[in-house]
Write a structure and sequence with these properties.
With 385 residues, this protein is an alpha+beta fold. The chain is 62% helix and 11% strand. It has nine helices and seven strands, in the order ααααααβαββαββαββ. The two termini are 47 Å apart.
C-alpha cells in the first residue's frame, strides 16, 4: 500500500502537493476557529499556522509550496484571527511587525526543513554508494582470496609431487638392489646374509605401504570434493594404545612413555585416521630426533578440547623450518624421508575433524608436536570438510 501511494505521489506530485498544502492550511484554520471562541486569545493562531507550514515543508518536495503556505498563513492569521476579525489591516500598531515576523519565521522554518531534507537525501545517497562500494570490495576480496587459495593448492600439489619423487626413490632403489643381489648371488650368500637382505626388502616394502597410505590420505583431504568421516565416540585410551601397538611393530626397540588422565575421555573421531596421525608423528620422532631416547606421548583435557602431545628428546626443529613445516616446501636428505608427506597428511586429517596441529621445540629440548580435537560435534555437519 505504501509503495502504491508513493508511486501515485511521484506521478502527480504537483497536484498532491497543492492538495497537501490546502488540507494543512484548512486544518489549521479549523483548529483556530474552534479555539478562538473559547479562549479569545489571538496568540494561539500563529503557533497553529506555523505548525501547518512546517508540515507542508516536510511533505512537499519543492520550496515554493512552503513559501506560498507561509504567505497564506500570515494573511489568514491577520484576516481571520486578529482583531478586527474578517478584516485585513496592518495599520494598527504592532500588526506590521507581527505580520513580518510570522512570515519570516514561517519562511525560515520552510528553508531549514528543505535544507534538512536535502542533507538527509544526500546522506542516504552516500550510504547507498558506500554500501555499493563495500559490496564491490567484498567481491574483489573474495576473488583475491579464491585466487590465493588456488595458488596455495597448486603450490602444495607441486611440493607433494617433489616429495613423492624424493621419498619413494630411495626405498625403491633399495628394494631393486637388494633383490638383484639375492637373485644373482644367492648361492654365495650365507643364510644369515639372505635373511638380512630379505628383512631389508620387507622393511622398505612396509615403508612404501605407509607412504601410499599417506598419499591416499593427502589426496582424499586436499581435493575439492567432500570427505566423509566415519565419526563415532571413541575411547581416547584405546585409540592411543592401538596406535602405539602398530608403531611398535615397525620399531620394536623404541621406548614410548604414555601419560593419560585417570578419567574416561570419549571423543568423536574417525579412529583409523587419528591412529594414522599418531603413528606418523611417532615415526617422525624416531627418524628426526637424532638420538636413541624415549618418546613421550601424553593426553590432556582443556575445557572442551582434548590435546595430544608427541615429544622426542632429540635435536629439535630448526627455527627457520618451523613456518614451512606443513606446506611441503622443505627439502630433506634421504635419511629423513617421509616428514613432508606425513605432516601434510596429519594436518589434513585434523582439519577435517575441526582440529589443529602445531609444532615447536620443547623448553627442555627436543621437538614437540601437539594437536587437539573437539570433544563435541560442532553445529556444522561432521560428514563434510
Amino acid at each position: 500500500m505504501s509503495t502504491k501511494c508513493m508511486k501515485i505521489w511521484e506521478e502527480h506530485n504537483v497536484t498532491c502537493s497543492i492538495l497537501s498544502m490546502a488540507v494543512a492550511l484548512g486544518a489549521a484554520w479549523a483548529i483556530c476557529s474552534m479555539i478562538l471562541p473559547h479562549t479569545r486569545i489571538d496568540n494561539d493562531a500563529p503557533i497553529v499556522f506555523t505548525l501547518a507550514v512546517a508540515v507542508i515543508s516536510r511533505v512537499t518536495k519543492r520550496m515554493i509550496y512552503g513559501i506560498v503556505a507561509s504567505l497564506a498563513g500570515a494573511i489568514a492569521v491577520n484576516y481571520f484571527f486578529t482583531y478586527p476579525y474578517a478584516y485585513f489591516t496592518l495599520k494598527i500598531e504592532g500588526y506590521t511587525i507581527d505580520f513580518v515576523c510570522f512570515l519570516a519565521v514561517s519562511i525560515l522554518i520552510n528553508l531549514l526543513t528543505y535544507q534538512l531534507r536535502g542533507e538527509t537525501a544526500r546522506a542516504v545517497r552516500q550510504e547507498r554508494e558506500n554500501y555499493a562500494l563495500y559490496q564491490r570490495n567484498l567481491e574483489l576480496e573474495e576473488k583475491r582470496s579464491a585466487a590465493e587459495i588456488a595458488m596455495a593448492k597448486e603450490k602444495m600439489h607441486s611440493n607433494l609431487l617433489r616429495a613423492v619423487s624424493h621419498d619413494l626413490r630411495t626405498p625403491l632403489t633399495t628394494i631393486a638392489g637388494t633383490s638383484s643381489v639375492l637373485m644373482q648371488k644367492s648361492d654365495s650368500l650365507s643364510a644369515e646374509e639372505r635373511t638380512r637382505l630379505a628383512a631389508n626388502i620387507h622393511e622398505e616394502s612396509l615403508w612404501l605401504c605407509q607412504m601410499v597410505e599417506n598419499l591416499l590420505s593427502v589426496t582424499r583431504f586436499q581435493n575439492d570434493g567432500k570427505v566423509t568421516l566415519k565419526k563415532q565416540d571413541e575411547l581416547v585410551e584405546e585409540v592411543l594404545e592401538e596406535s602405539v601397538t602398530k608403531f611398535k611393530r615397525r620399531f620394536p626397540d623404541q621406548e614410548v612413555h604414555i601419560r593419560i588422565p585417570d578419567q574416561v575421555l570419549m571423543v568423536p573421531m574417525d579412529a583409523m585416521l587419528i591412529e594414522q596421525v599418531l603413528i606418523n608423528l611417532l615415526e617422525n620422532a624416531v627418524r628426526h630426533a637424532g638420538v636413541k631416547a624415549p618418546i613421550e606421548v601424553s593426553v590432556k583435557q582443556r575445557k572442551d578440547k582434548i590435546w595430544f602431545s608427541v615429544r622426542d628428546h632429540g635435536r629439535g626443529i630448526a627455527p627457520e623450518d618451523l613456518p614451512k613445516l606443513f606446506d611441503g616446501s622443505l627439502h630433506q636428505t634421504d635419511s629423513s624421508r617421509g616428514l613432508r608427506i606425513g605432516l601434510s597428511t596429519c594436518m589434513a586429517i585434523l582439519l577435517a575433524h575441526r582440529g589443529m596441529l602445531m609444532a615447536g621445540n620443547h623448553p627442555d629440548g627436543g621437538a614437540e608436536f601437539r594437536f587437539w580435537l573437539p570433544m563435541k560435534e560442532s553445529s556444522e555437519s561432521n560428514e563434510e570438510r
